[in-house]
Description:
Blueprint: E1 5-8, H1 12-22, E2 28-31, E3 36-37, H2 40-44, E4 50-51, H3 59-62, E5 64-68, E6 77-78, E7 85-88, E8 94-98, E9 111-112, H4 130-143, H5 159-162, E10 169-170, E11 179-180, E12 193-195, E13 201-203, H6 226-235, E14 240-242, E15 245-252, E16 261-267, E17 272-278, E18 280-283, H7 287-299, E19 312-315, E20 322-324, E21 344-345, E22 355-358, H8 369-376, E23 379-382, E24 391-396, E25 399-403, H9 410-426, E26 430-431, E27 437-438, E28 442-444, E29 468-470, H10 485-504
Parallel strand pairs: 1-2, 1-18, 2-14, 3-4, 5-7, 8-27, 18-29
Antiparallel strand pairs: 5-6, 7-8, 9-11, 10-21, 12-13, 15-16, 16-17, 19-24, 19-28, 20-23, 20-26, 22-23, 24-25
Helix pairs in contact: 1-6, 1-10, 4-10
Amino acid sequence: MMTKTIIIGSGFAGAVVADQLVNAGIQVTLLERGPWRDTVPVRSMGITDRTPFPRGRQMWGATFRSLRHRWLGKKGLLLNPRGLLEMFIDKHLSTVCSSSVGGGSHIYSGVFRYPQVDHFWDGFCEDISDASMKRHYENVLRKFDAVEPAADLKIPHTAAERFGPGDPVQGPSKTPPTWLGFLFPEEVGSPRKIMTAEGIERWELDYDDRDGHGFLGAPNGAKTTVDFLYLAPLLNKGLELRDLCEATRIVENPVGNEARYRVDYFDHKTGETVSLYSDNVILAAGTMNTLSLLLRSRDIDGTLQGMPQLGKRLGGNGDFFAFWDYNEVGRNLSTGLPFHGGFQLKDENFPLVLGGGGWPAADKYPFPRFIKERVKRGAFTSSMGPDAMDGTVGIRDGKLHIDFNPDNSPIYAQTAATFRRMSEVTGKKIFHPKSPITVHALGGACMDRDIERGVVGSNGEVYGHQGLFIADGSVFPRMPGGPPTLTIAAWAERLGMRLAERLRGTP
C-alpha cells in the first residue's frame, strides 16, 4: 500500500509532526505499537478498543509491556503488548519508555521548561539556533494552554508547605521558568467536567483524586495528553492511526522503485506482518526505540546503510531516580500533582536541587493496606542535569547493548551525595539504585552539520537517506538538563512545518 507519509510513534514528537502535516493537507499513516488508553477524553472520542491504565490486581500484568536485556534474547521479553512501560536494562544505565497512543504524554509529569543549558541549539547547523526555535516553543506552550504555577492555584505538597524555617531543607533558591500542562479548576476543590471546542470531554484537576495524575496515567483527562489534544482533531481530517502496530524494519528500496521506503510492522491485533510504502518516513518512537529500529535495520537486516554516527553521544539527562521514605504521618503524597516542585538542602556544600512527587494512584495498588499507606507517605525523588553524553548504543551478537559510564559525568556522584546527605539531616531515608535509571534517554542520532559529526541535519533528515527523518529526542545535540518534553515538541513542530512546506512546494 502506497501512502504519502509514514510516522512511527504517536507521543509528543509523532503527534506534533502529524498535526503539521495533516493540517497542511498531506496524507499520513501513523503507526503506534501501544493501545488507546481508557480515559474520559478517549471515551468521548468514540474509541471502543481501549486499555485501562495499570490499577488494582491488573497492575501485575498491565504495567510492563516488555523488558530488554542482553540476557533476554535478541528481541527482549514481550510480557503484554498492551502494557504501559518498557525497560531497557543495562549494567550502568537503564531507561524506561512508554507504550500508548499518546506515548510519553501519559507518563510525563506535566512540566514544561526550556533547556537548562545555554545555547542548546546554537553552533551545530547554520540555519537553526536558540533564537529561531523560540517561536516553536511558544507555539507548543500556547497549544497546551500551559499555566505558570502561582499561589492562587493552591498546589499541595510544595516545599513552601512542607518545610519550615527550622528545617534543613528549603525550596530552590532559583527556579527556572516553568509551565504546567493541566486543566486547573476555576474553583479549587470543585472540579467540573468540561467539553473542549473539539467536542472532547475531560475533568478539571482534582488534587484529592485517588486515581492519580502521574506516571501511571490520568484517566480523567485532567493532565493534558497529546492523544486528545493533537491527534483527536486529525482523525476527522484524514489521519490514519493504526494502534497496536509495531514497526519492525525500515527498508530503503533501490532507485527506480515506486517508493523510496518500505516499513514492515507487526499487527498485534491480527498477528500479521504488514508492509507500507512511502517516499517519506518519520521516526518518532522515542530515543531507545528509534535507535533500536535504525540499528536493527542497518546491522541485522541490512536494509539501511551508512549513518556512521548512529548510536553515539547517548546521554541520560542526568536522571537519577530514588525512593524517599518520607513517612510523615497524616500526609498523603500520592495526591496533588505528579511533580511537587524542587527543594534543596540549606548547605552550600550541597547546592543541587532535587525534585519529585508522590506515587500516583497508590490506593489502587494490589498491596496490603499497611504497605499502601506507607507508599502514600513516600515519594520518588530525582535530579536532572547535563551529563557527559558519551554513551553508545549498538548491536552485538544480534542484541542491543547500552555502553554508558556514569563515573564520567559528575552529576551522578553529586546526586548520590545529595541523597545521602538529605537522608542524614532529615532522618528520612532515600533509597537509590547503584546505577542511574532514566526516563529521558536522549541523543544517539544527533543533529550536526555533516555526516561525519551527526546523523541528521537541521531539518531532521538523515544524512544519505532522502525522505527519512527523526523527530524525537534522539537528535538532541546536547543534554537539556531538565524536562525535555517542550524541546521535543518544539523540534517536532519545526520538522513537520518544514517538511509540509517541501511536500507542498511552498516556502
